[in-house]
Amino acid sequence: MSTSVWQDYFELTKPKVVLLLMVTAVAGMFLATNPAGMVPLHVLVWGSLGLAMAMGASAVINHVVDQQIDAVMARTHDRPIATGKIKPVNAIIFAVVLTVTSLVLLDQTINRLTAVLTFFGVIGYAGIYTLYLKRATPQNIVIGGLAGAIPPLLGWTAVTGTLDPGAFALVLIIFIWTPPHFWALAIHRRAEYAEAEIPMLPVTHGEEFTKTNILYYTILLFISALIPFVIRMSGLIYLISAMTLSAIFLFYALKLKYFSDPSTPMKTFGYSITYLFLLFIALLVDHYFPLFIS
């Protein structure tokens, strides 16, 4: 099915990925307020727009750099640049416009700290991870995951203009979540990554080693997800939700490790997305629970 030009450019921004990241960024905004407070409207609108544009720009660069890889992988072979619908130079121009607009918008309407951190986030993902780490080491996801973990920090600083412990607790959760999330997909796509000569962990160290690491990281994630409760950033609603969601994730990791089922890697990958979404929703519900019962 043919698509319009704007749809092709929109696809370059990886809207589904950006949507999940924006959930964590907006959650960071609301969690930075007092339990009875609300995010200022201009921060919610302009901050969300600026952050989404920066995330989209990073995704566009990822498309440009990975065009040859995308062409040989079943999951990505029909992407706009891989199919020739959009020329790489046009995509780069698009990414530059998104980035500059984002940074100016955040600097002028939110605060300079958020703009600077966003800039480093773009450099971290589009530059350090996509251009170098992805092809340099099987620990690419672990090291590069920090760039993808900062959206809640950006949402937090957009409201407060400061770097606070609660924001870093949210960053840590996503940082620990990233490896088991992506390695589950990498197991499923192992042959394609091998053909594309990308040193993903299942390619370089084998599936069993990767499954063991997924299990270890999931246990670490279980512990990390409790930090907001431990530091009194959240209450019992979040604690119960986090323990339940993490227990289910751990079940998938154990099943992946100890039971041979070809469908488990993608089920684990799918649940990991649900996990992160619901975990941050639980944080928000817990944060505003006093309002719901007042």
Describe this structure in words.
Helix 3 (about 40-65) runs antiparallel to helix 5. The chain is globular, with a radius of gyration of 19 Å. It has helices spanning about 5-10, 15-30, 40-65, 65-70, 90-110, 110-135, 140-150, 150-160, 165-190, 190-195, 200-205, 205-225, 225-230, 235-260, 265-294. It has 2 domains: about 1-160, Orthogonal Bundle (Tetracycline Repressor, domain 2); about 165-294. The chain starts with a helix and ends with a helix. With about 290 residues, it is an all-alpha fold. The model has no long low-confidence stretch (mean pLDDT about 90).
Map the helices and strands.
Layout: H1 5-12, H2 15-31, H3 41-65, H4 67-72, H5 88-109, H6 112-136, H7 140-149, H8 151-160, H9 165-188, H10 190-195, H11 201-205, H12 207-224, H13 227-230, H14 236-258, H15 264-293
Helix pairs in contact: 2-3, 2-8, 2-15, 3-5, 3-6, 3-8, 5-6, 6-7, 6-8, 7-9, 8-9, 9-12, 9-15, 12-14, 14-15
- Derived from helix and strand composition plus strand pairing, the structural class reads mainly alpha
**Count of distinct structural domains:** 2
* Superfamily (CATH H level) name of the largest domain: UbiA prenyltransferase
Number of helices: 15
Question: What is the terminal separation in angstroms?
Answer: 52 Å
